[in-house]
Amino acid sequence: MSDFVADLVKQVKPSATIAVSMKAAELKRAGKDVIGLGAGEPDFDTPDHIKDAAIAAIKAGQTKYTAVDGTPELKQAIIGKLLRENHVSYQPNEILVSCGAKHSISNLLNAVINPGDEVIIPAPYWVSYPDMTLLAGGESVIVNTTMADDFKITAEQLREAITDKTRLVMLNSPSNPTGKAYTRVEMQALGEVIVENPHVLVATDDIYEHIYWGAEPLANLVELFPEIRDRVIIINGVSKAYAMTGWRIGYAAGHQDIIAAMRKIQSQSTSNPCSISQAAATEAYNGPQDCLGVMKAAFKERHDYLVEALNQIPGLKCAQGEGAFYAFPDVTEVVAKVDGISDDVELATWLLENAGVAVVPGTPFGAPGYVRLSFATSIDVLKAAVARLDDAIRPFFA
Ligand SMILES: Cc1ncc(COP(=O)(O)O)c(C=O)c1O
């Protein structure tokens, strides 16, 4: 029956992170003791006041279709959040609420990409960007960085990557999988390149903005360069900040013409995101914000422990992150030492089978030679995972 699957879809790779989680779950079901560090979601539960808002919405009968682009209440809550936290001002017709930030990105790419248009994606990148670009008919232009570059592209690299066919640049800060964030000065330099290229749009995927402990406040491109406001599309949502991955609420903020095009796509695909989840997200933005600090502090503590511990394991080199909940060590020395494996993908399988630890290989993030470990789990679990990794790897360096 695979003959019936469209050619374009055959080119799309299934999500590597979901694949690792599924493999780990399968081994667990088979009775194997596996520690899963593959997941990209907070281990915290959604705060009670947010759950209560959802329950109240159900009881109040908010169980019908809403406006395709989100309830007026949620849009106002998002507008309030953008003003309060990011110092940027938007109108309701410049906001589109979707079923997660992933859906917002997919809507955006489908709304602005013509066949063959180029999308610049700095690597390491979130696994989904290139495949979503492919599905939208675009061509990914990958700009590589390494640990030595702090995993960040420079203005020169961006300038060189831009061609007449460039339609969009995808920025993600703090980054999945590296945890690195652009400083204000670095963002300013990138912004200047965008100013010079009026045919280029920028998507800023800010989904990890609340899981950030860098030295200075995060720099927002729209705040830095109001003159390119119309060409920047802010992508964000409640999944990571408020531990609401399952509720599926994300949004885009941008020029009304682009938002209207995205809304049209959404109106012919999913229609509105879940009405109850929208009520919960409204409370997330309007309600008490102390949960953000509590979760951030826990992520920072785990980060500090894990990066330090990984660097004690022979053959692993791990940089400090400034946010998100991933460690992204260089594993090339381990790959070279362990018999019978030749890359990070094989190493990840080897670690699953020999150490009982599920990590995601760097290759699907556009970064061969690295693996990603999620620290969205307790310190005790991280300690157990580190001990297992150490036991499995150290003998090869004896
Ligand atoms: C960089 C990045 N952007 C977007 C998303 C998707 O977020 P959502 O759950 O809101 O669709 C993720 C989730 O892993 C992510 O890591």
Protein architecture, described:
This protein is of the alpha/beta class. The protein has 2 domains: 147 residues, Aspartate Aminotransferase, domain 1 (Alpha-Beta Complex), CATH 3.90.1150; 239 residues, Type I PLP-dependent aspartate aminotransferase-like (Major domain) (Aspartate Aminotransferase, domain 2, 3-Layer(aba) Sandwich). The chain is 42% helix and 13% strand. The protein contains 15 helices and 12 strands. The strands form 3 sheets. Strands 2-8-7-6-5-3-4 form a 7-stranded mixed sheet, sandwiched between helices. Helix 6 links the parallel strand 3 and strand 4. The protein starts with 6 loop residues before the first helix and ends in a 5-residue tail after the last helix. The mean pLDDT is 96.
**Kindly, what is the distance between the CA atoms of the first and last residues, rounded to a whole number of angstroms?**
51 Å
> Mean of the pLDDT scores?
96
| Number of helical stretches of at least 4 residues | 15
Q: What overall form do the CA principal axes indicate?
A: globular
Q: Which radius of gyration do the C-alpha atoms yield?
A: 21 Å
Brief write-up:
The chain has 398 residues and is of the alpha/beta class. 42% of the residues lie in helices and 13% in strands.
Give me some keywords for this one.
Aspartate Aminotransferase, domain 2; alpha/beta; Aspartate Aminotransferase, domain 1; 398 residues; globular; binds pyridoxal-5'-phosphate; 2 domains
